[in-house]
Fold this sequence. Notes:
Layout: E1 10-14, E2 32-35, H1 45-57, E3 60-63, H2 77-90, E4 95-98, E5 101-104, E6 107-113, H3 119-136, E7 140-143, H4 157-168, E8 171-175, H5 176-186, H6 190-196, E9 202-207, E10 211-212, E11 217-218, H7 227-240, E12 244-247, H8 256-275
Parallel strand pairs: 1-2, 1-12, 2-3, 3-4, 4-7, 7-8, 8-9, 9-12
Antiparallel strand pairs: 5-6, 10-11
Helix pairs in contact: 3-4, 6-7, 7-8
Amino acid sequence: xxxxxxxxxxxxxxxxxxHFDAILEQHRGVDFVEILPENFMGFGGRIEDVLKRVxxxxxxxxxxxxxxxxxLDPLNQTYLNNLxxxxxxxxxxxxSDHLSASSGHGIEYHDLLPFPYTHEAVGYIxxxxxxxxxxxxxxxxxxxxxxxxVLPGEMPEIEFLCTLLDKAECGLLLDVNNxxxxxxxxxxxxxxxxxxxxxxxxxxxxxxxxDDQGEFLIDTHGAPVCAxxxxxxxxxxxxxxxxxxxxxxxxxxxxxxxxxxENQKVRKWAAEVDDA
Length: 276
């Protein structure tokens, strides 16, 4: 895969229900939108109509939450087949999902759970990623995790992530807020983490707000991006080069003009990196 040929600079927001109509009228500074396939696949009526109208205006990238790459259940073949058809219809340049376990024993957890960073897990998850890529037949990105506990393992998160990228031959959706939250909660250097990332594999980044509980941070996607995360984002751009940057705001969703103003901040930070 020639990852470098896919790299370019774009800025987008998540397509959420409160903005379904307004985003088609107000979209200053928005180059693309990101959707959760689970919220759109198989739906008709208004959902289907909105998606068609948005697709006519913006590139759309699909970011899923259901693959459960680290889960122990077999991959859901029905979901994969439906996802293949869906991303082809969207003409999504790539699709992504989380490096986590999100189901087990046939039960959807509706959460992204951690797993041990071991050599066995590299092989197991790497093989599952390859199976996903064989079905979908387009570039696949994994998102670095947000975790609140470190399970006993054999290597730190960044070593596991880089080893897995090499094993699975996939791309990376670099969630900058996840790095910052994990660095504060688990006590590592977020800038050294970024230094270790294979820059050519990063096609997209996520930015989001979090909740500061004092002793720990929670990745809520429910607040503006803080200055420390923006600084880390600028550093990541210098290391990784051009990417599609997605502003996530999934809880306490603000009015569209507030979201667009926050997206303009993202563009400003990226422009300052370009000018440096």
